[in-house]
Amino acid sequence: MPNETVLSPAPLSSVSEANATISLLQKHSLTGAVQQEIERLINEGELGPGDKLTEASLAERLGVSRGPVREAFRVLEEVGLVQLEKNRGVYVRQIPLEEALEIFDLRAMIEAHVGSTLAANATEEQLLSLRTLVTQMEQAVKVEDEATYYRLNVEFHEAMVAYAGNKKLIAMYRKLTRELSLFRRRNFSDHALLVTSVNEHRDILDAIGSRNAAKSAEALRQHVLMSRERTIRNYVKYSERKAP
């Protein structure tokens, strides 16, 4: 008769540790999903600057307990999308125009560096991926789908920064651009702005594809600075509409 290996029961301490680890992973996974959904609601304008966020209402809406919502608030505060005010609650953060313009200036420097880096180092596969995104952006412009265009625009710029190969840079870039979400979304508020924007993205891609580092850097720098100017004009229009 063959020998049978009998496995000894795992010590209770090991079982407890394993269960705790599984619980932690599940919690973090759920927190991440909740965070992404709240971030989407903010980016798409369903939750606007100054709106108060409550654990109970969001937990009910998302079908989760209040714990993951509370944890998601902490993460979103770290990336600059929400603000926790003592004894008042959690609010979607309102970025002053002056701060937004400073972020645009930083973006211009970052993306100019990214442009020159990609002109020198981007693979054909990466360029194809960027071309695909621009083609999808052009389609969104044709059907005047502002929400899809905004999402693709964010993906395009984040992909370029990621392709530059600096993990610290992409983390910094994402934090900065999350804070700009309201202002960037207003820049796609009408069809003419979408057409202008998508043409600039096609020019950026052509510059990178030409492998001209200086031309690519300048194309991206000018694109961000033009976005900065559109932000100022749109802010003035928006403020005039809200004025009594």
Describe this structure in words.
- The chain has two domains: 18-92, Orthogonal Bundle (Arc Repressor Mutant, subunit A), CATH 1.10.10.10; 97-242, GntR ligand-binding domain-like (Four Helix Bundle (Hemerythrin (Met), subunit A)), CATH 1.20.120.
- The protein is globular.
- It is mainly alpha-helical.
- The chain has ten helices and three strands, in the order H-E-H-H-E-E-H-H-H-H-H-H-H.
- Helix 4 (97-121) runs antiparallel to helix 7 and helix 9 (191-209) runs antiparallel to helix 10 (213-242).
Task: Please supply descriptive tags for the structure shown above.
244 residues, mainly alpha, Arc Repressor Mutant, subunit A, Four Helix Bundle (Hemerythrin (Met), subunit A), 2 domains, three-stranded antiparallel beta sheet, 10 helices, 75% helix
Determine the strand fraction and express it as a percent band. Answer: under 5%
Please state the structural category. mainly alpha
How many strands, what sense, and barrel or not for the largest sheet? Answer: 3 strands, antiparallel
CATH topology of the largest domain: Four Helix Bundle (Hemerythrin (Met), subunit A)
Spatial strand order of the main sheet: 1-3-2
Instruction: Quote the distance from N terminus to C terminus.
Output: 92 Å
Q: What is the string of SSEs from the N terminus onward? A: HEHHEEHHHHHHH
Low-confidence region ranges: 4-10, 12-25
What number is the mean pLDDT? 85
CATH homologous superfamily placement of the largest domain:
GntR ligand-binding domain-like
Label the CATH architecture of the largest domain: Up-down Bundle
